[in-house]
Specification:
Layout (H helix, E strand, L loop, with lengths): L11 E4 L2 E12 L5 E9 L5 E7 L5 E2 L3 E11 L2 E6 L5 E5 H4 L11 E7 L2 E6 L3 E9 L12 E6 L4 E5 L7 E5 L4 E6 L1
Antiparallel strand pairs: 1-2, 1-5, 2-3, 3-4, 6-7, 6-9, 7-8, 9-10, 11-12, 11-14, 12-13, 14-15
Length: 186
Protein backbone atom coordinates (compact mmCIF):
# COMPACT_ATOMS: atom_id res chain seq x y z
CA UNK A 1 0.00 0.00 0.00
CA UNK A 2 1.19 3.48 -0.81
CA UNK A 3 0.16 6.75 0.79
CA UNK A 4 -0.53 10.18 -0.65
CA UNK A 5 3.08 11.28 -0.17
CA UNK A 6 4.38 8.40 -2.29
CA UNK A 7 2.16 9.06 -5.33
CA UNK A 8 3.93 10.10 -8.53
CA UNK A 9 3.04 10.45 -12.21
CA UNK A 10 3.33 7.15 -14.04
CA UNK A 11 2.66 4.90 -11.04
CA UNK A 12 0.06 2.18 -11.61
CA UNK A 13 -2.47 1.52 -8.85
CA UNK A 14 -5.46 -0.76 -8.35
CA UNK A 15 -8.76 0.98 -7.72
CA UNK A 16 -12.19 -0.70 -7.62
CA UNK A 17 -10.70 -3.87 -9.14
CA UNK A 18 -9.29 -1.99 -12.18
CA UNK A 19 -5.74 -0.88 -13.01
CA UNK A 20 -5.08 2.85 -13.40
CA UNK A 21 -1.97 4.86 -14.26
CA UNK A 22 -1.63 8.23 -12.56
CA UNK A 23 -1.44 10.96 -15.21
CA UNK A 24 -1.51 13.90 -12.79
CA UNK A 25 -2.13 14.50 -9.11
CA UNK A 26 -2.63 17.43 -6.76
CA UNK A 27 -2.50 17.48 -2.98
CA UNK A 28 -4.81 20.27 -1.73
CA UNK A 29 -5.15 21.46 1.86
CA UNK A 30 -8.47 23.18 2.50
CA UNK A 31 -8.78 26.00 5.05
CA UNK A 32 -10.92 24.25 7.65
CA UNK A 33 -11.38 20.80 6.16
CA UNK A 34 -8.92 18.00 5.67
CA UNK A 35 -6.51 17.67 2.81
CA UNK A 36 -7.69 16.00 -0.40
CA UNK A 37 -6.02 14.34 -3.39
CA UNK A 38 -7.18 15.08 -6.92
CA UNK A 39 -6.02 12.35 -9.27
CA UNK A 40 -6.24 12.23 -13.05
CA UNK A 41 -6.20 8.53 -13.94
CA UNK A 42 -6.08 6.46 -17.14
CA UNK A 43 -7.55 2.97 -17.14
CA UNK A 44 -4.73 0.68 -18.30
CA UNK A 45 -6.99 -1.85 -20.03
CA UNK A 46 -9.55 0.39 -21.75
CA UNK A 47 -7.59 3.66 -22.05
CA UNK A 48 -10.31 6.03 -20.81
CA UNK A 49 -9.31 8.84 -18.45
CA UNK A 50 -11.10 10.20 -15.41
CA UNK A 51 -10.58 12.49 -12.44
CA UNK A 52 -11.34 11.45 -8.86
CA UNK A 53 -10.95 13.05 -5.46
CA UNK A 54 -9.87 11.14 -2.33
CA UNK A 55 -9.13 12.08 1.28
CA UNK A 56 -5.38 12.54 1.84
CA UNK A 57 -5.40 9.63 4.29
CA UNK A 58 -6.43 7.18 1.54
CA UNK A 59 -4.04 4.32 0.78
CA UNK A 60 -3.73 2.67 -2.61
CA UNK A 61 -2.51 -0.74 -3.72
CA UNK A 62 0.47 -0.29 -6.03
CA UNK A 63 0.65 -2.58 -9.04
CA UNK A 64 3.91 -3.49 -10.73
CA UNK A 65 3.73 -4.10 -14.47
CA UNK A 66 6.28 -6.16 -16.39
CA UNK A 67 7.83 -4.46 -19.40
CA UNK A 68 8.78 -6.76 -22.29
CA UNK A 69 10.21 -5.71 -25.62
CA UNK A 70 7.91 -6.62 -28.48
CA UNK A 71 7.95 -5.91 -32.20
CA UNK A 72 4.83 -4.65 -33.97
CA UNK A 73 3.87 -7.09 -36.74
CA UNK A 74 0.57 -6.10 -38.35
CA UNK A 75 -3.03 -4.96 -37.82
CA UNK A 76 -5.97 -7.27 -38.44
CA UNK A 77 -9.19 -5.22 -38.22
CA UNK A 78 -9.49 -4.36 -34.48
CA UNK A 79 -6.44 -6.38 -33.35
CA UNK A 80 -2.82 -5.27 -33.30
CA UNK A 81 -0.32 -8.16 -33.37
CA UNK A 82 3.06 -8.09 -31.62
CA UNK A 83 5.92 -10.59 -31.19
CA UNK A 84 7.90 -10.90 -27.96
CA UNK A 85 11.58 -10.22 -28.79
CA UNK A 86 12.88 -12.88 -26.32
CA UNK A 87 10.41 -15.76 -26.47
CA UNK A 88 9.01 -15.03 -29.99
CA UNK A 89 5.52 -15.49 -28.53
CA UNK A 90 2.70 -13.69 -30.38
CA UNK A 91 0.38 -11.24 -28.58
CA UNK A 92 -2.70 -9.40 -29.81
CA UNK A 93 -4.01 -6.15 -28.34
CA UNK A 94 -7.39 -4.61 -29.09
CA UNK A 95 -7.78 -1.11 -30.52
CA UNK A 96 -8.97 0.09 -27.08
CA UNK A 97 -5.82 -1.24 -25.42
CA UNK A 98 -3.56 0.41 -28.01
CA UNK A 99 -5.49 3.70 -28.04
CA UNK A 100 -3.91 6.76 -29.64
CA UNK A 101 -0.55 4.98 -29.92
CA UNK A 102 -1.93 3.33 -33.09
CA UNK A 103 -1.13 6.58 -34.96
CA UNK A 104 2.60 5.87 -34.59
CA UNK A 105 2.77 2.09 -35.13
CA UNK A 106 4.58 0.95 -38.25
CA UNK A 107 5.77 -2.53 -39.18
CA UNK A 108 8.85 -3.62 -37.25
CA UNK A 109 8.64 -0.92 -34.55
CA UNK A 110 9.96 -2.18 -31.20
CA UNK A 111 7.75 -1.16 -28.24
CA UNK A 112 7.52 -1.96 -24.52
CA UNK A 113 4.63 -4.37 -23.96
CA UNK A 114 2.99 -3.87 -20.54
CA UNK A 115 2.23 -7.24 -18.93
CA UNK A 116 0.14 -7.93 -15.83
CA UNK A 117 -0.10 -11.46 -14.48
CA UNK A 118 1.30 -12.80 -17.77
CA UNK A 119 -1.29 -11.04 -19.95
CA UNK A 120 -0.59 -8.07 -22.25
CA UNK A 121 -2.62 -5.03 -21.21
CA UNK A 122 -1.03 -2.15 -23.09
CA UNK A 123 2.10 -0.73 -24.63
CA UNK A 124 4.56 2.13 -24.36
CA UNK A 125 6.04 3.63 -27.51
CA UNK A 126 9.57 4.96 -27.90
CA UNK A 127 9.78 8.71 -27.30
CA UNK A 128 10.29 9.42 -31.00
CA UNK A 129 9.54 7.52 -34.21
CA UNK A 130 10.62 8.19 -37.79
CA UNK A 131 7.72 8.30 -40.27
CA UNK A 132 7.38 9.14 -43.95
CA UNK A 133 5.18 12.05 -45.11
CA UNK A 134 2.58 10.78 -47.63
CA UNK A 135 0.45 13.91 -48.09
CA UNK A 136 1.08 17.60 -47.61
CA UNK A 137 0.53 20.83 -49.49
CA UNK A 138 3.43 22.70 -51.05
CA UNK A 139 4.87 25.28 -48.68
CA UNK A 140 4.67 28.93 -49.69
CA UNK A 141 7.24 31.14 -48.06
CA UNK A 142 6.85 34.83 -47.48
CA UNK A 143 3.54 35.11 -45.61
CA UNK A 144 4.98 34.39 -42.18
CA UNK A 145 6.88 36.60 -39.78
CA UNK A 146 8.22 33.53 -38.00
CA UNK A 147 8.35 29.90 -39.07
CA UNK A 148 5.04 28.71 -40.48
CA UNK A 149 3.48 25.27 -40.46
CA UNK A 150 1.11 23.19 -42.56
CA UNK A 151 -0.82 19.93 -42.07
CA UNK A 152 0.72 16.64 -43.19
CA UNK A 153 -0.45 13.01 -43.27
CA UNK A 154 2.10 10.37 -42.30
CA UNK A 155 2.47 6.77 -43.52
CA UNK A 156 0.50 5.49 -40.52
CA UNK A 157 -2.42 7.86 -41.18
CA UNK A 158 -1.52 10.28 -38.38
CA UNK A 159 -2.09 13.98 -39.09
CA UNK A 160 0.36 16.50 -37.62
CA UNK A 161 1.61 20.04 -38.26
CA UNK A 162 5.01 20.29 -39.99
CA UNK A 163 7.22 23.22 -41.09
CA UNK A 164 6.75 24.66 -44.58
CA UNK A 165 9.96 23.09 -45.95
CA UNK A 166 8.75 19.49 -45.42
CA UNK A 167 7.67 17.77 -48.65
CA UNK A 168 5.97 14.53 -49.67
CA UNK A 169 8.40 11.62 -49.31
CA UNK A 170 10.46 13.23 -46.52
CA UNK A 171 11.08 11.16 -43.41
CA UNK A 172 10.47 13.11 -40.22
CA UNK A 173 10.93 12.39 -36.52
CA UNK A 174 7.75 12.68 -34.43
CA UNK A 175 7.46 12.94 -30.63
CA UNK A 176 4.97 10.23 -29.64
CA UNK A 177 4.12 11.91 -26.31
CA UNK A 178 2.86 15.14 -27.89
CA UNK A 179 2.33 14.15 -31.54
CA UNK A 180 4.53 17.00 -32.70
CA UNK A 181 7.22 17.38 -35.36
CA UNK A 182 10.80 17.15 -34.02
CA UNK A 183 13.09 17.22 -37.07
CA UNK A 184 13.58 16.05 -40.63
CA UNK A 185 15.65 12.86 -40.87
CA UNK A 186 18.23 12.70 -43.65
Amino acid sequence: MITAGELRKGITIELDGELFTILDYQHNKMGRGGAVLRLKLRNVRSGYTMERTFPASEKFRRVYLDHRQAQYQYRDEDLFHFMDMESFEQYALTAEQVGEEADYLKDGLVVDMLMYEGQPIGLELPITVDLKVTETEPGFRGDTATGGSKPAVLETGAKIQVPLFVNIGDVIRVDTRTGSYVERVS
